[in-house]
């Protein structure tokens, strides 16, 4: 695909567009290797053309995409836009039954798909576990987990930092934070996370997808059974055991079984995969800017330096590229465009974070940028409840890799360079599944 805005469509019943076209343009495709490798030129053209665009995802699914910082901020805080899938119209439901996660499983009624007051009560159950003070108290343990993984890397030469670090570190941290017992943590198959990338009923990969879903549902049932038993043990401490607290809430009638399973699913998948991807996007960015990588390594212990760098790396290339679906309950105006009731509305967090109306020289990496009010964790009532945890994980991971792998640089073998990276084809996320690097030695 190219980074051009398609020509206007010629349908007589198309609503008028707010940016000068007489007719609504054909849907802009948001998929393909070129787009996933670098979506930012396209996002720039879309911002310049207007705040709302009709876009297309794989399998022909259409949505209204919001670009630009002010529009994104307003949409994320718009009380008219609901998250519950019951608001979706028949056309959306017909196509989205396979996108972007198992809509027809029992795992869809988690926080991302709820509206107040249900969202409020469900969110309250998880906030204490991710409170900044608790996260900071666990930071020494996070450091131990990061060091243990680096200790397993080759002493010199190089490694794949996804297979050797990024694919494991977030889950090990998560298990500690939510109270997942080690024996259950060891059983978790990262491949189950691919249930958020389902395929159509006729796709050759459908049997494998359904097998992943069944495996994950069985695993969640085992987690619930184990935590129910733990809750009955003398001395059980709810404040240290988020999974147990959710099971107790279900047993007390506060959550349905589908809601319980969905929240466990959200923790296990959304609680780790975005951090894995964010570690990779941060490293790719720094490897593409070796001078800034070197300066950050030298100043990693300076007060506030690492925290500012992580915020800028989140802004520059966020792993959560697009939000999940939102819907209007009735035909509504969205920045000058009429959006039919039940059509899906998605906000581009990455496009918002490169808006020059909000960030001077937005394409330039400035590790000391301040202020930096990026939207990498969203905004409003659906702001990521695990943001403090993610920030701590990213800071520890980045500092550990930079200080313990001197000479960190792109891999030198043919076909392993930064230009050859294959980006994850996920609809909502950015990241790479392999990141071969070289380094002088393991410190």
Strand order of the largest sheet: 1-2-3-9-6-4
Strand and helix order: EHHEEHEHHHHEHHHHHHHHHEEEEHHEE
Total DSSP E strands: 11
The CATH class is: Mainly Alpha
Mean model confidence by pLDDT: 89
Protein name: Cytochrome P450
Keywords: Heme, Iron, Metal-binding, Monooxygenase, Oxidoreductase
Family: Belongs to the cytochrome P450 family.
GO molecular function: heme binding; iron ion binding; monooxygenase activity; oxidoreductase activity, acting on paired donors, with incorporation or reduction of molecular oxygen
How is this structure best described in words?
GO terms for molecular function: heme binding; iron ion binding; monooxygenase activity; oxidoreductase activity, acting on paired donors, with incorporation or reduction of molecular oxygen. Pfam families: p450. Keywords: Heme, Iron, Metal-binding, Monooxygenase, Oxidoreductase. This is Cytochrome P450. With 443 residues, the protein is α+β, with helices and mostly antiparallel strands. The chain has one domain: Cytochrome P450 (Cytochrome p450, Orthogonal Bundle), CATH 1.10.630. It has 18 helices and eleven strands. A six-stranded mixed beta sheet has the order 1-2-3-9-6-4. Strands 5-11-10 form a three-stranded antiparallel beta sheet. It has a two-stranded antiparallel sheet with strand order 7-8. A hairpin with a 2-residue loop joins strand 7 and strand 8. The longest helix is centred in the middle third of the chain and has 26 residues, at 206-231. The chain is globular and about 60 Å long. It starts with 27 loop residues before the first strand and ends with a strand. The model is unreliable at 1-24 and 99-103 (pLDDT under 50).
């Amino acid at each position: 695909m190219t980074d051009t805005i398609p020509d206007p469509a010629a349908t007589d019943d198309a609503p008028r567009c707010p940016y000068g076209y007489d007719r609504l343009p054909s849907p802009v495709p948001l998929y393909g290797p070129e787009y996933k490798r670098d979506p930012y030129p396209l996002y720039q053209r879309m911002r310049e053309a207007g705040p709302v665009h009709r876009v297309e995802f794989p399998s022909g699914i259409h949505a209204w995409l919001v670009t630009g910082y002010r529009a994104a901020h307003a949409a994320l805080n718009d009380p008219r836009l609901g998250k519950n899938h019951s608001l979706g119209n028949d056309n959306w439901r017909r196509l989205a039954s396979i996108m972007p996660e198992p809509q027809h499983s029992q795992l869809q009624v988690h926080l991302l798909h709820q509206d107040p007051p249900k969202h409020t009560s469900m969110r309250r159950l998880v906030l204490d576990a991710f409170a900044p003070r608790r996260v900071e108290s666990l930071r020494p343990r996070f450091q131990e987990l990061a060091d243990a993984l680096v200790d397993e890397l080759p002493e010199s030469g190089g490694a794949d930092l996804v297979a050797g670090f990024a694919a494991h570190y977030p889950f090990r941290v998560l298990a500690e934070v939510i109270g997942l017992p080690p024996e259950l943590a060891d059983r978790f198959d990262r491949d189950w996370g691919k249930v958020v990338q389902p395929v159509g009923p006729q796709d050759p990969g459908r049997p494998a997808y359904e097998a992943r879903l069944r495996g994950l549902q069985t695993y969640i049932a085992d987690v619930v059974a184990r935590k129910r038993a733990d809750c009955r043990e003398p001395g059980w401490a709810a404040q240290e055991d988020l999974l147990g607290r959710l099971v107790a809430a279900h047993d007390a009638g506060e959550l349905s079984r589908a809601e319980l399973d969905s929240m466990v699913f959200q923790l296990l998948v959304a609680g780790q995969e975005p951090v894995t991807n964010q570690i990779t996007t941060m490293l790719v960015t720094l490897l593409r800017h070796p001078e800034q990588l070197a300066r950050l390594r030298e100043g990693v212990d300076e007060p506030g330096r690492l925290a500012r760098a992580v915020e800028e790396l989140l802004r520059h290339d966020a792993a959560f590229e697009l939000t999940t679906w939102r819907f209007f309950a009735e035909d509504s105006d969205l920045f000058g465009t009429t959006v039919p009731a039940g059509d899906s509305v998605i906000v581009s967090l990455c496009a918002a974070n490169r808006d020059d109306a909000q960030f001077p020289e937005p394409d330039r990496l400035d590790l000391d940028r301040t202020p930096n009010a990026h939207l990498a964790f969203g905004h409003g009532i659906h702001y990521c409840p695990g943001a403090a945890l993610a920030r701590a994980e990213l800071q520890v991971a980045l500092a550990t890799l930079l200080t313990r792998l001197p000479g960190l640089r792109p891999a030198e073998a043919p076909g392993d360079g930064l230009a050859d990276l294959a980006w994850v084809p996920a609809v909502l996320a950015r990241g790479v599944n392999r990141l071969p690097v070289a380094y002088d030695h393991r410190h």
